[in-house]
Amino acid sequence: MKKTLLLFVLLLGFVSLKSNAQEAIKVQEKYTAHNKGKFFVSWGGNRDSYSKSNINFRGDDYDFTIYDVTAHDKPKGWHIDYVNPARMTIPETNLRLGYFLNDHYSITIGLDHMKYVIYQLKAVDINGYYPNAGTYDETLPNDQVLLTEKFLTFEHTDGLNYVNTEFSRFDDMSKIFHINNTDKIQVNLTEGVGGGFLYPKTNTKLLGKDRHDDFHVSGYGVSLKAGINVTFLKHFYVQGELKGGYINMPDIRTTKDPADRASQEFFFFQRIIAFGGIFKV
């Protein structure tokens, strides 16, 4: 009987020690040690570059393509508009909401609000036909035209809206920088792949016609990204990303006439800085 009682006491002591050890491990474990189940949201800005693009314009009495058209973004610079709710669509911005499926992988939805403006007064090759050729100060020799404002202005400035879902991986790289307390500061490497649709508001002045200038689902895009995430005090972070991809828009509205359409495809490259928060519900 005494042996049984002694064995029972020893067993209780072992269970108690094991439980205390587990609780001690939990106390010592950092909040940033695991990501599973965490939500995050970020808001930031971007600068964009675009490849050359062939753009086709078509309607009831015209069908022509201009080749190797160059374009640029429309930067706002550091400005209060990035945080002004009434003017947030004026700068080039990025909004993203995400959830960690496990410690390393997350899924997000987001809006990349880019801006795309073709360069004016550039000579480009052209093929096709349109009415009143030569009356827009556009005609050049050798099957070229000059992109005058009377002939064509073409921009996605409110904007080139890429609505997308991303699947991303995060890896804690803090040890490389000799950071021991990741609850104070943590450095993560992230990379991901995404895809979605284009919902631009295209501002076009074409052959003297009235512009349409309204939101319209115009095509699709795919993208890849890589970035550095620096998290402060468990819940706040700044993230820098390089993001590139392909956009194909076969159905762009150009004027109020529903028969008037444009199409184009090109590659894009974004440089993004975003600020965000990460938390558990």
Q: Based on helices, strands and strand pairing, what is the structural class?
A: mainly beta
Strand content: over 45%
Strand runs, count: 15
The general outline is: elongated
Q: Residue ranges: pLDDT <50 for 5 or more in a row?
A: 5-26
Biggest sheet: strands, sense, closure? 8 strands, antiparallel, barrel
Order of helices and strands: HEEEEEEEEEEEEEEE
Gap from first CA to last CA: 52 Å
Helix content: under 10%
- Strand order in the largest sheet: 1-5-6-10-11-13-14-15
Global Rg: 27 Å
What's the pLDDT, averaged over the residues? 88
Number of helices: 1
What keywords describe this structure?
elongated, 10% helix, 281 residues
Write the topology of this structure:
Layout: H1 2-28, E1 39-50, E2 53-59, E3 62-69, E4 71-72, E5 93-100, E6 105-118, E7 123-129, E8 139-140, E9 144-146, E10 152-172, E11 185-198, E12 202-206, E13 219-232, E14 236-253, E15 261-279
Antiparallel strand pairs: 1-5, 1-15, 2-3, 2-15, 3-7, 4-6, 5-6, 6-10, 7-9, 8-9, 10-11, 10-12, 11-13, 13-14, 14-15
Description:
The protein is mostly beta strands and about 280 residues long. About 10% of the residues lie in helices and about 55% in strands. The protein is built from one helix and 15 strands, in the order αβββββββββββββββ. It has one helix at about 1-30; strands spanning about 40-50, 55-60, 60-70, 70, 95-100, 105-120, 125-130, 140, 145, 150-170, 185-200, 200-205, 220-230, 235-255, 260-280. An eight-stranded antiparallel beta barrel has the order 1-5-6-10-11-13-14-15. A hairpin with a 3-residue loop joins strand 8 and strand 9. It is elongated and about 75 Å long. The two termini are about 50 Å apart. Residues about 5-25 have low confidence and may be disordered.
